[in-house]
Amino acid sequence: MLKRFTVAALLAAALGSAAPAGSAERPITPDDVARGEYLVAVMSCGDCHTPGHFFGKPDMTKYLGGSDVGFAIPGLGYFYGPNLTPDDETGLGTWSTAEIVTAMRTGVRPDGRVLAPAMPWMSFARLTDDDAFAISAYLKSLPPIDNKAPPPAGWNETPPAPYQQVTMPPAR
Ligand code: HEC
Q1: Is 118 near ligand 1, meaning CB less than 6 Å away?
Q2: pTM of the predicted model, to two decimals?
């Protein structure tokens, strides 16, 4: 075990520090995709990222294709779970796996905006490198769905679509 760790550490040192741990791009294997599918199911990503879910009728033809019901966070705004499928226009098609990992674990999108805590990234910060990579690999493997979730709106703006207001439990 110790030996394996040492080899990995040496390898990491030799490869340099181009990318932070866990965000390195590497080829996606079928095992990554299978592990990611499992994690996405048990972590309930589909609840907040699939249309119809909060009306009790998730549209599984648009699984992970973006929610039609947002979360109102007093003082902050209204936030809708975006399309997580690799559609270039409406989803994560142009995001790298590393960018998806960073958004999931730190809340930071490629454009620098920090995701609202309705997206439980504070909890997801504890994902291991391998699991975070597997989730992004699975998302990349999905068929792209052309579906734009409503954009976020500020607290003083008119919300673009229905929303629910809940007090989010703290991250554990
Ligand atoms: C409780 C609801 C909820 C759950 C569960 C959830 N998300 Fe989210 N997620 C959101 C919301 C709401 C946003 C948008 C927040 C914002 O715009 O600030 C979001 C944003 C994102 C984003 C950024 C996308 C973009 O275009 O900006 C990614 C990536 C993401 N979620 C991935 C996931 C993954 C993967 C899972 C499961 C492991 C997951 N989410 C589980 C609610 C959720």
Answers
A1: yes
A2: 0.87
Q: How far is the CA of 81 from the centre of ligand 1 (A)?
A: 5
Q: Tell me how many domains the chain contains.
A: 1
pLDDT score of 24: 55
Find out whether 70 and 53 touch, Cβ atoms under 8 Å.
Answer: no
Mutate to test the pocket of ligand 1, among 32, 37, 42, 49 (most ligand atoms within 8 A of CB): 49
Give a yes or no: residue 2 inside a domain.
no
Q: How far is the CA of 8 from the centre of ligand 1 (A)?
A: 32
Chain-centroid distance of CA 6 in Å reads: 31
Q: Where in the sequence is the domain holding 72, given as residue range(s)?
A: 21-145
27 CB-near residues (< 8 Å, 6+ apart): none
User: Hey, whose CA ends up nearest to atom 6 of ligand 1?
Assistant: 45
| Atom 26 of ligand 1: nearest residue by CA position | 82
The tens digit of pLDDT for each residue in 32-67 reads: 999 999 999 999 999 999 999 999 999 999 999 999
107 φ/ψ angles, rounded to the nearest 5 degrees:
80, 0
